[in-house]
Specification:
CATH superfamily of chain B: Aldolase class I
Strand content of chain C: 15-25%
Largest sheet of chain B: 8 strands, parallel
Number of helices of chain B: 13
Oligomer: heterotrimer
CATH topology of the largest domain in chain C: Aldehyde Dehydrogenase, Chain A, domain 1
Chains: A alpha/beta (about 290), B alpha/beta (about 325), C alpha/beta (about 475)
CATH class of the largest domain in chain C: Alpha Beta
Distance between the termini of chain C: 55 Å
Number of strands of chain B: 8
Helix content of chain B: 40-55%
Number of strands of chain C: 18
Number of domains of chain C: 2
Number of helices of chain C: 13
Distance between the termini of chain B: 35 Å
Structural class of chain B: alpha/beta
Structural class of chain C: alpha/beta
CATH superfamily of the largest domain in chain C: Aldehyde Dehydrogenase, Chain A, domain 1
Radius of gyration of chain C: 22 Å
Helix content of chain C: 25-40%
Strand content of chain B: 5-15%
Chain lengths: ~290, ~325, ~475
Amino acid sequence: MSDRLTVLKTYKLYVGGKFPRSESGRVYEVTDAKGRWLANAPLSSRKDARDAVVAARKAFGAWSGATAYNRGQVLYRVAEMLEGRRDQFVREVADAEGLSKSRSAAVVDATIDRWVWYAGWTDKIAQVVGGGNPVAGPFFNLSSPEPTGVVAVLAPQESSFLGLVSVLAPVIATGNTAVVVASEKSPLPALSLAEVLATSDVPGGVVNVLSGRTAEIATPLASHQDVNAIDLAGADEELAKDLEIAAADNLKRVLRPQPVDYAETPGIDRMTAFLETKTVWHPTGSLGASGSSY
Amino acid sequence: MPSTALTAAHPLKDVAASDSSLRRFLHGLPGVDAVGLEGRAASLGTRSIKTTAKAYAIDLAISMVDLTTLEGADTPGKVRALGAKAVNPDPTDRTAPSTAAVCVYPDMVPVAKEAVAGSGVKVASVATAFPAGRAPIGVKLADVREAVAAGADEIDMVIDRGAFLAGRYLKVYDEITAVKEACGTSARLKVIFETGELSTYDNIRRASWLGMLAGADFIKTSTGKVAVNATPANTLLMLEAVRDFRAQTGIQVGVKPAGGIRTSKDAVKFLVLVNETAGEDWLDNHWFRFGASSLLNDLLMQRQKLATGRYSGPDYVTVD
Amino acid sequence: MASAFEYAPAPESRSVVDIAPSYGLFIDGEFTEAAGGKVFKTVSPSTEEVLSEIAQAGAEDVDRAVRAARGAFGKWSALPGSERAKYLFRIARIIQERSRELAVLETLDNGKPIKETRDADLPLVAAHFFYYAGWADKLGHAGFGADPQPLGVAGQVIPWNFPLLMLAWKIAPALATGNTVVLKPAETTPLSALFFADICRQAGLPKGVVNILPGYGDTGAALVAHPDVNKVAFTGSTAVGKEIARTVAGTRKKLTLELGGKGANIVFDDAPVDQAVEGIVNGIFFNQGQVCCAGSRLLVQESIQEELLESLKRRLSTLRLGDPLDKNTDIGAINSEEQLTRITSLVEQGEAEGAERWSPACELPESGYWFAPTLFTNVTQAHRIARDEIFGPVLSVLTFRTPDEAVAKANNTQYGLSAGIWTEKGSRILAVANKLRAGVVWSNTFNKFDPTSPFGGYKESGFGREGGRHGLEAYLDV
């Protein structure tokens, strides 16, 4: 054991590809499972939430317009970066969730694998949920999924890393941009994930990470008219109801909280929850039926 | 009456300066969406024309018929019978209107002329090596001149579809202007595109404008000699063309669907197309014709039914 | 249209439909009085003639109907899919057999032209039942797991613009997936739903599987709020849709909403002009513009504005407004006095805001609710008539200069249901379609519908899809 004093990290928010402090200047104390001080995390305000939405909206055009292959490459790059920081996350998750080193390592491995799983989905989901429709007429008719827009994601409170990635990755894999509210009690893995995103090829604004009081940040997000959807995974029953009511103001797509075992391989529901279906029609002409016909 | 040809000074005359300028103009016309066009034609086909409207439409349709015989087996006797029928379509009812014209091959023009003499029924003659049009231009023009000299009031020419499909629009244009000149001032010129061979609606729109630019008095769908002749859709398209041409130039051009129109119901549908596309200015046999033979008898039977309330039968109309 | 060729009246015979002087609620396979004894009248909007007196369901009736549906759910959901399929096939066939009767009925109660009920509504209604009938025994192949389960009792509230078609969109997928249904038709158009109840009887559908509760907004609200409803499906206004979303918040009720729109019909300078004109007319004057996916904003490229407007005005002059039962009528009556008032008020605002109003010469009948086809030019994005859903035969014309501007203007709305693109350039269609934030994009056509084709909105036009494989999801526990 060396007696060198370690250099502590100042955890910051991640908004628009930058690492600002909360505009409120507030922080709150984050402790480990045993109550020992780990760090001071930014206590985000309504204004931070608003800035994050602006950044997410700004990033939406390019991210949703990127090719699915490109999004897959970018997300896979994130997994590579995560792998490189594996030890850091094992430590952070162990601290946050009170896990043993080996249990924490298993969680981190599962998380990285989860990220790879979603990276592979980017260019497949359209084939699974979209397709041609055999309409009764001379028309080409194609339904394709499209990202719904800016999604507010309330990360699960307990599963600070695997749960986080399990709700975030499906949102951005399909081309949405996200404003993530980290686990209130255990925000550090989320804030560190932001550092990974910043050093991989994810464009700034695609993912924005806020830490603080979930209810305080989620309320302005749920009522924000430029947010298209909200995942309530990290809200308790009472908060979820209030947020769902607020979300009705602009008819956000709402994914209600439900019991999830994040260790299990997910289905595609978390992707389809934030996909729109666009159906495009075009006449085909009617070959030969009436002579001159196309 | 509107003037019948573009003056040399008209800006649209310039488009025929060369093959390429003509191509640029014709390919610059708005495209045609086939499904939309056919949908519109079908939708107008659901108009329900009853009682007084039907009586009006049937008489109008009879008056628009170019009663046609274009067979190798045509004889003077057959043509005389046709002429008599054109003048008095229903021997039992003299209130039935005459048809617009009889339409025959050039060698039958003198016979037809005599058969309809004094009636107001016109004699139309196909010419220009009808129906294929595959003859040297000199032969085609001679064909026209003979028919006109024999007294034809109207000449139904065919365009050179081969040249059109090969993109040699100026050749088609020049032929039409030459035929127009051969028609002189006495005969009106109907230009047949053989739409069934042009294959696309875009081509039919281009051919329509080409024909009108070159001086056609009528644009006509087909010869009646190929698989697909007049259809509601191609006629609708040509009606749009004459409507737009008049809006742009002030010149009114007639339309003649020919071939395949056999029943009164069909004929009335075409009149609805005329009414709701080109408008009532075209609801006159100076501007709209049906090229048909068996249609007339069906119109007459329907006319009898409307007059008497009984369904008629083929024994009560004349066999041609 | 004064023409030598005047079309004589060609009315469809009213005698093919026999409307009873009064109708009850349809609960558990029986027609019954409302518990509170309340009734309301339904009138023919083209004449204001009272067609029938209808029982008005209250909260107690809602409860009774939900209990009936709950009671029927166990057996119905346990039936083999192939058996449920056959019931739906029967219903589809009976609708085809009775389509003339239903078309006349719908025209009488709604005011829309017989041409539309005959050629659009009824064929689509039957097709929708046929389509979902076939799904009933193939749900394991629909991509929702090997054995997807129904939700339970579906509470469905439908609008007055396509009464029977909206019923079909709601009931067919609900029954195919094994749910039972309580459906509230709109107060101005309850009749076709009540005739549908009779079709269920003819088809031998088990009692309680379909329940029909005519009534006003409060009936719908009670249905949506009923604690034993598992699924809520609503088609109607965005304002009511938001209210419903608040009502179901915090429950396990699954919700789908199909709401308003302000569809942009974008016409580029290389459009197939004659078909574009037809598409514009069909887009905004079909069903008197009372269509959520109407192309109510015409975005035309500046370079062809004059030419296009001239063609459009000429075409509008040929529209035939009048007796909806006349087979030649293109424009029928507005559905209700209330709707007419709303249209009138928005149009007056459009004029007050400086837009230029034009209508073809058009005589309106003396009685009934009528509004002439109307076109506004000099409209800007800031005008209310460019933003609010008018739900009437009123077209706002705006211009653009570049494709980017067209897309930006088209998307500049809280809605996102439909859009149209007219151009002969294929790549432009695909590029623009890709950028439009709308659930249905019609290119070189407009207002086309098909049971296989998913329909539904982005943004405040609602969520969930109706039609196609996608339409099953709304009624499955997935």
